Amino acid sequence: MKNEAAQPKNPPALTAKVVSGSGSQLAKQGSVYRSGVSAQSVGSNMLWLGAISLPAGRRTGAHRHEGHETALLMTAGQEIEIWSGPKLERCEMVRPGDYLFIPAGVPHVAVNRSQEDAEFLGARNDPAANESVILMPELDHIVP
């Protein structure tokens, strides 16, 4: 009997693949995603890599990513606030050149109070172009 859980979702790639930049999509938490490497674009089984932006004067809704970790590198913009923790009790400033790690299951909100769009290079261990996001509207009132 074959162990289905151990089988990769996509057949292994036999060659390297180049992905041209694609259009953007508004994620349900409020940031803008441009997928590069994903299950859909190259058959990735464990990795998503793409660009993420948070427009000037905008914020995300409170949310968490239950099943995956996220790593970001801020590449452009001024600075943004990252509120995180069970009750969004911790606030840190992220500036261009900073790396940011968001563990799986951690509630967070990103706020861009500047007049400039914030841009990130992002990677996560969920290969889907449309990641699984759990919105947490009960926490939205905490972050001004």
Automatic annotation (TrEMBL):
<dbReference type="InterPro" id="IPR013096">
    <property type="entry name" value="Cupin_2"/>
</dbReference>
<feature type="domain" description="Cupin type-2">
    <location>
        <begin position="53"/>
        <end position="121"/>
    </location>
</feature>
<protein>
    <submittedName>
        <fullName>Cupin domain-containing protein</fullName>
    </submittedName>
</protein>
<dbReference type="Pfam" id="PF07883">
    <property type="entry name" value="Cupin_2"/>
</dbReference>
<feature type="region of interest" description="Disordered">
    <location>
        <begin position="1"/>
        <end position="20"/>
    </location>
</feature>
<dbReference type="InterPro" id="IPR011051">
    <property type="entry name" value="RmlC_Cupin_sf"/>
</dbReference>
<dbReference type="InterPro" id="IPR014710">
    <property type="entry name" value="RmlC-like_jellyroll"/>
</dbReference>
